[in-house]
Design a protein that fits this description.
heterodimer, A: alpha+beta, two-stranded antiparallel sheet, 1 helix, B: 3-stranded antiparallel beta sheet, 3-stranded antiparallel beta sheet
Chain lengths: 65, 282
Amino acid sequence: MQTSLIVPSQLTDYSTKEAGPIIVALAFVIALGGVAAAAIILCGWRGAKSVGVNLSQRRVEIVCR
Amino acid sequence: MPLATPFGRYCPYLLGSDYVSLSGNARLESGLLRDIALGATHTVVEPGTHILAALRDGITVAELDTLAARHGLLNGQLAELLGFLNLAGILLRRRTLYRWPEAILRQTWHLCLNIRYAPLAWRQPATYTSLIHAIFRATSLVAIATIIVSLLIIVAGMPTFVVISHSLFGVIVFMGSLYAHEATHMFIIKRHGHTPAMLQRGLRLGILHTTLPTRNEVICSIAGPLAGISSALSVSVAAFAIPYPTHGLLALIVSGFHALSLLPWYGDGASIRHALQRRSTL
């Protein structure tokens, strides 16, 4: 059996106080980028006039120029 | 003792030519590894002391592999030890510039095979100045992603000035509120007589400290996100009042990021959960 070479102190938790917001922020920026990429794919280089989210119908509406 | 803790997953990617050593925060003394800044003492099991002694003096990874094999160690045991050192932020790695492309290519190839490595940790004494440096390091990927997405949005038809003003505003509010979040943790830990250290590993930014009593741990874990939420929220209220509604909405979203860190699965929420679990098992 493999044995551990180190027995960590019980008094220190090396994984605490991590700031989760950075990961969430990156996910948010990537999601925004996804919407922008979708607008370019659907509307071409002329781009979109507006992007709206219809929550009741669970749709994203991209209006092209 | 069997390998009960999965420290191996914190082992960073290392090339044979990489030069690794222990940081000045760690000291090896008669079978014990002392984390000087945090005042923690870890027990080293033979033949781990030989490996740590070599790391104290500095050694290349190829030489370290040979040394480990000479002492009959398995790769998993060495990875676990290096993973623990990286988790604690006391492993230093020096890589020559021309080796970086090889490392990036190999890591990308391994990622395609679903083999992942932890980023190398960066640790500094926790001061209000080192916090700024740590925030810039941790959020660099978010900043790059924001630039790329902003360019995409400009291409998608939004006016350039509007996109730039919103992106800059979002990044500034995010970094500012992150500073408030972490500085509050730091302030409370120092107030209770502990010496915190700043640890950044990839997108993760953390404050290391010795265990606080349950009540203080809970207060400290709640106060950080609250500071982040309130700072972003106050900017949001001000922006709505001007009125700059989309800027206000952005700041509101940023305050939501901080609120999410109170969820019990990671970050501050997990700290609260662990502290309460510790108390219930006493």
